[in-house]
Specification:
This is Ribosomal RNA small subunit methyltransferase I. By secondary structure, the protein is an alpha/beta fold. It has helices spanning 31-39, 48-57, 72-84, 105-113, 126-132, 151-161, 177-188, 212-221, 252-262, 267-278, 282-292, and strands at 16-18, 42-45, 64-66, 89-92, 118-120, 141-146, 167-172, 193-198, 206-211, 228-232. It folds into three domains: 16-124, 3-Layer(aba) Sandwich (Cobalt-precorrin-4 Transmethylase, domain 1), CATH 3.40.1010.10; 127-232, Methyltransferase, Cobalt-precorrin-4 Transmethylase, Domain 2 (2-Layer Sandwich); 243-292, no CATH class. The strands form two sheets. A five-stranded parallel β-sheet has the order 3-2-4-1-5, sandwiched between helices. A five-stranded mixed β-sheet has the order 6-7-10-8-9. Strand 8 and strand 9 form a beta hairpin. Helix 6 (151-161) packs across helix 7 and helix 7 (177-188) runs antiparallel to helix 8 (212-221).
């Protein structure tokens, strides 16, 4: 167990500050974030050139060190060493909150192991910003981030989310939007409500709301540029598991094959689902499937 009192004066180490940066509009930078960057001994930045523009705008002269997905393993020991020596480090990504589809998590874990306080500052994050203006339920949601780029793997990922009741949030490149929405239509159906948000907080901010089918049709006729966020409404239908055993007359093998066909699951996922629905041990269902196929 780890108990952290972030601002205990008895702490002798430095602190790791996770500092959010604007996702577009520089006016979204908070006073506290600016002060933290100024007071830190060093800023660990995903892209030092990009962050330098932000620092120049707010007259921050703190030195930077690059910290990204390609060098974090070699950077972490050096940063932890500085923190243990009493220096504070501010970590930033190119936009939004560190660790949310951006570098940061591994450094946080290393600091917790070394019993170094980790302090997160609140600030902008694209997914939640898009959610509250999407028109879809914001009470419960799942942030998924980026889907797999390969079609078959993306379809499998979407299939695992098909019956989620909460709003789904994804990030996507504008170059892959058409393919991704086509896959979403294939899995979720063209009538499921969705929202495509681009260039959030910037001059050309735009929301495209409608069914997934309508949005796909729009994309096939129009080119989209800029940073994009996709929201998909939660499943509102009736699950097989919520009916009175519609599968009761099926054999276990038939049930597995139906799960694979209707819900686009692989055999391992289908076996797990059938075992759950029937109240059986997964090993029992596994044996039946592999003995009969």
């Amino acid at each position: 167990m780890n108990k952290q009192k972030s601002f205990d004066k008895a702490i002798e180490t430095g602190r790791l500050y996770l500092v959010p940066t604007p996702i577009g509009n520089l006016q979204d930078m908070t006073f506290r974030a600016i002060d933290t960057l100024k007071e830190a001994a060093v800023i660990a930045s995903e892209d030092t050139r990009n962050t330098q523009k932000l620092l120049n705008h707010f007259q921050v002269t703190t030195p930077q060190i690059s910290f990204h997905e390609h060098n974090y393993k070699e950077r972490i020991p050096k940063l932890v060493e500085r923190l243990l020596a009493g220096e504070s480090v501010a970590q930033v990504s190119d936009a939004g909150m560190p660790s949310i589809s951006d570098p940061g998590h591994e450094l946080v874990v290393a600091c917790l192991v070394a019993e170094i306080p980790v302090v997160a500052l609140p600030g902008a994050t694209a997914g939640v910003t898009a959610l509250i203006a999407s028109g879809m339920s914001a009470e419960k949601f799942t942030f998924y981030g980026f889907l797999n780029r390969k079609k078959n793997l993306q379809l499998k990922e979407l299939a695992t989310l098909q019956h989620k009741r909460e709003t789904l949030i994804f990030y996507e490149s504008p170059y892959r939007l058409k393919a991704t929405f086509a896959n979403m239509v294939a899995v979720f159906g063209e009538e499921r409500q969705g929202s495509l948000c681009r260039e959030l907080t910037k001059l050309h901010e735009e929301y495209i709301r409608g069914t997934l089918g309508e949005i796909l049709s729009y994309l096939l006729e129009n080119e989209i540029k800029g940073e994009c966020c996709i929201l998909v409404a939660g499943f509102a239908g009736e699950l097989v598991a919520e009916t009175e055993n519609d599968w009761s007359d099926w054999s276990i093998l038939e049930h597995i094959e139906e799960e694979m066909s209707q819900n686009r699951l692989n055999s391992k996922e289908a076996i797990k689902q059938v075992a759950k629905l029937r109240g059986l041990k997964k090993q029992e269902v596994y044996k039946v499937y592999h003995q009969e196929t």
